[in-house]
Model the fold of this input.
Amino acid sequence: MIEFKNVSKSYALGSGKKILLNDISFRFQQGVNIGILGVNGAGKSTALKLIAGSEAPDKGRIIRRGTFSWPLGFSAGFQGSLSGEENLRFICRIYAANIRSVIRFVADFSELGKALYEPVSTYSTGMRARLAFALSMAIEFDVYLVDEIMGVGDRLFQQKCRDAFVEKSKRSSIIMVSHNMNTIREYSDVVLVLSNGNVDIYDDIEKAIASYEK
Amino acid sequence: MKIFWNAFNVQRRVIFALILRETRTRYGKTRIGYLWALFEPLAHILIFAAIFSFTGRASPLDESVALLVLTGLFPYNLFSNLSIQLMNAVEANKVLLSYPHVTPFDVMASRTILEIATQMVVFIFVLLILALEDLWDMQIDSLLNVLFVVLVATALGAGMGLINAVLAFKFPSYANIFGMIMRPMYFLSGIFFVVGYMSTEIQNIMYYNPVAHLIEWFRSAIYIGYNSEFLDKHYLFNFTLTVVFLGLLLLRLSRHKIRQSK
Done:
């Protein structure tokens, strides 16, 4: 369950202030998959960070029930000087996950091979995304927060991600940010469209996409 | 109640994970890694102890110059390393602050714990070397007071480190300024001499330096028969409490800003 109660959020931007969310309230039950749409800079990623709790709202309250992942994105929180495997260990410790089984799963799923034991700073963007994605699939959450990360890698890997997500969605739900309308269509039950500090909620995904593309 | 217990468990896990990670990253990719962290203060103390011993300088407190150097450098290093380690903690852990569980406070706490542990191990190790070389008679005046000084030095260093962390975050050039202030502190804290035996004029100036009080207190706790007249615990406590309070307050006020900076 995620609930926003009169949440406001803005950023200091040079001289002025950019308002991303202006007194927003909504509430979704566990099990609802949410897609978030908005132009660049509309505050999609910030909204996801607010949901995760890695940033705090300026005003209002955010209530979560259940376990939430961190926002899974390309800039995932990996320490560049440490190897992929060492990063996994750190995250497992934070989330009290079984280190050995997570490493086994990630090694298998990510197909990184020996690179898993190399510093993350040597990874390509795609490799990082694969590591982040595999890791998130290895740890159980009630809600997975996904920032533009769907559709990385080749076709085969994409299919693998899709299968993993379908499997997950039996028990967990997804809140995702994406520019890809097909991904939004495929995974969301509800779509939030962010613009100028307001949030419009659409149950009909086609309507949401139409309003966004206008 | 259950919520608090959960939160406590998460924090415990995060701080533990951060400490382990720090031991891996601080000294690069070498296999011995963290041993370097121990080696550096160890070398610092041993080199100065050796220089002063060979130049034939006498300790005003007993025959051992090495013990004088050790009892001066240990409280000083604890304070100074903490204040600098915490100042740089945010920058070094920026990536990890993107995890909702990891807070700026956790980052500070883990560095503090690791620093105390490191300095304590080094201190005990050097003490053992001195005992083997007959430079220490294996007696101390008051273990309780020794622990007290460790506690106060930690609080003072960590409090200062918190203030530094927030100031360095707000004003990036602050780190250089603090480095400049700390350089003379090395000579004005009474590491290589005993403040209690200095002239009143010098003591009057050094009175305002809390680290000088720390070192005097530490030596009073170690040396049997030395009780510093210079030491003003009242001043030290007040100074420390103010610094800790200010540090925690500043961190609390700026924790959201620290998190969302990329």
About this structure: Chain A has a mean pLDDT of 87.
